[in-house]
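Sample intake sheet
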Amino acid sequence: MPEASPETTARRAPAGAGDTGAAAHFASLPIPEITDAEAFLEGVYVVALAIPAGRVMSYGGIAAALGTRAARQVGKILASQGDDLPWWRVVRADGTLPAELQARARSHWLSEGTPVRGTGADTRPAAAAFLRPQKNALRPGDRPVESGPPNGEHGNPLR
């Protein structure tokens, strides 16, 4: 069996870095009320910029933190306008990124001390690296998101 190295085994997250502190970490952010596409864009920027070094969040995690289920729109924003953001801290739910970004992200993850698993092109953030705020965790005073009218329109500001 090959000897384990820091690059091939998951590193433990710092004490207290689990999900329990995620809501508290984001509680004071100036999240806009999501009423239109511009507010959604601003919310994505605020949350993405607040992800600390060594941690990651999924596209769906950012959407949930904003009180929506619009994970694909979060991905589209990062793909088209994310150059100013720490894009390597926002990943798919399984910790992967598009193949063309994976190697670049790996170097960021290792330099920031992000807990990772796998090697080479298969490197991805370990479960301990994920921040998972609950739905609407960033705006605790807001009403819960409703499922929407029966016609399937869910109030997505980007539609």
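Comment: The chain has a mean pLDDT of 76. Residues 33 and 39 are 7 Å apart (CA to CA).
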